[in-house]
Design a protein that fits this description.
mainly alpha; single chain
Length: about 100
């Protein structure tokens, strides 16, 4: 997922604007891709990530919350990795639910 990729890139020292741009290339949704590009551009211009995130409704709520919390606490990589874990668990739960319903 995009959050996991972002977390990994940030954790390994890739500057946030570049990490956002790389992650946008992996996004399957055009809307998410565009939102990440816009975040990258805003960060490059020196605008605070939390301000950029709050103004972009195209970002998933959980990802937005993790961006803000991670920036506030100075632990952006950890917050993004946590979002990736939550997304993964949701997908597993949904797959299990579908298996239960359709078998």
């Amino acid at each position: 997922h995009v959050a996991g990729l972002l977390g990994l890139l940030v954790e390994h020292g890739v500057p946030l604007p570049r990490a956002l741009r790389f992650a946008s290339l992996a996004a399957q949704s055009t809307s998410l891709r565009d939102a990440l590009e816009q975040l990258s551009n805003g960060c490059t211009q020196g605008r605070p990530l939390s301000d950029l995130v709050r103004r972009d409704p195209r970002l998933p709520t959980l990802m937005s919350q993790m961006f803000v919390a991670g920036e506030t606490e100075g632990r952006l990589a950890d917050a993004l990795n946590q979002a990736a874990t939550i997304y993964h668990r949701r997908a597993e739960w949904q797959a299990e639910w579908l298996r239960t319903v359709f078998t």
